[in-house]
Write a structure and sequence with these properties.
This protein has one domain (3-91, 98-238, 268-291): Hypothetical Protein Pfu-838710-001 (Beta Barrel), CATH 2.40.320. The protein is built from seven helices and ten strands. It has helices at 16-28, 82-89, 116-123, 202-211, 227-234, 237-242, 274-291, and strands at 3-9, 31-45, 60-66, 69-75, 106-111, 128-130, 147-157, 161-169, 177-186, 220-223. It starts with a strand and ends with a helix. Residues 128-147 are annotated as: Disordered.
Length: 295
């Protein structure tokens, strides 16, 4: 797994997936290797219904299922971001203890297996209900209105590239298609530091643009966030409190023909590998859909 980029084809036609597939097969000799299937459910809290508990804004939660993992983005608009809190603490007297909130505005979790979140909410009688889709017709509203599906395919292009493309479907109804999502993964690189403010990669952007069919008036936008936003998302309270884990005692090797791995780059938390790649991909997808009011 490697560094990935995401794009949103907002006004893709219903035949968009077939057009992308034909373009990849005919012009890039891409080979279909499987299906790309994701699902997203969105919820909102109902804390304001508790007698004597008055809050100006409810919390929201989006859960994206990818394979055997569920990535959950919980947002509390009344809580501070970690960056805002650090900026506020910098203005305070350092001799006095600073504020220590129990949570920040965004919390990003990884759960398994699929369905565990719903079971937990039911067992705890959590104050959460499915959100209503904005932009959906009345036939889509209700308990199933919070369900979004991404259904598509996965291709290999050469040995270095993996491309995923899928159509975004709402819960049902005659107007259930909401464009497409396209993702390109460059396997040789676990991380790519861009010089642009939004951390967009020209390498990935060029490929995503190339695999799009030549459709007139296509509205395509790149889905990116800055490195500072990634730090906010990937921040770990327990890791910060515990400090850095001490390195294991180095093994002494007497063999002069054996070299250690001291100078080899170690995998870092920010690298796009394994579960971390899926977490970053899920966060970008949730952010793209939330920005359009789809989930």
């Amino acid at each position: 797994m490697g560094f990935s980029g995401l794009a949103r084809w907002i006004n893709a036609p219903s035949s968009g997936l077939d057009l992308v597939s034909e373009n990849i097969a005919n012009n890039y000799n891409g080979q279909t290797i499987g299906k790309w299937q994701l699902s997203v459910r969105s919820y909102r809290s109902t804390l304001s219904t508790i007698p004597g508990f008055d809050i100006p804004a409810e919390r929201t939660m989006a859960a994206l299922t990818m394979g055997e993992n569920v990535f959950v983005l919980l947002e509390d608009p009344l809580a501070p971001t970690r960056a805002d809190l650090l900026a506020h603490i910098a203005t305070l007297d350092p001799s006095q203890p600073g504020p220590d909130p129990d949570h920040y505005r965004s919390t990003f979790l990884t759960l398994r297996p699929p369905g565990a979140l719903e079971q937990l909410l039911t067992q705890l009688k959590g104050k959460w209900v499915p959100s209503r889709q904005s932009g959906a017709d009345s036939s889509q509203r209700g308990s199933s209105g919070s369900h979004v599906r991404i259904e598509g395919r996965v291709w290999h292009i050469g040995s270095d590239w993996v491309v995923r493309a899928g159509t975004v479907h709402l819960g049902g109804g005659t107007h259930s298609t909401k464009g497409m999502l396209l993702e390109a993964e460059y396997k040789p690189l676990p991380v790519l530091h861009s010089q642009t403010a939004d951390s967009a990669s020209e390498l990935l952007s060029n490929l995503l643009t190339a695999i799009l069919p030549n459709v007139r008036d296509a509205k395509v936008v790149a889905v990116t966030i800055s490195e500072s936003q990634w730090e906010e998302v990937l921040w770990d309270r327990e890791q910060e409190q515990d400090g850095q884990v001490e390195d294991k005692d180095e093994e002494i090797v007497d063999d002069i023909f054996v070299s250690g791995d001291r100078d080899m780059p170690a995998a870092r938390k920010g690298d796009w590998i394994g579960l971390e790649r899926d977490r970053r991909s899920a966060f970008l997808i949730i952010g793209a859909l939330k920005s359009e009011g789809i989930c």
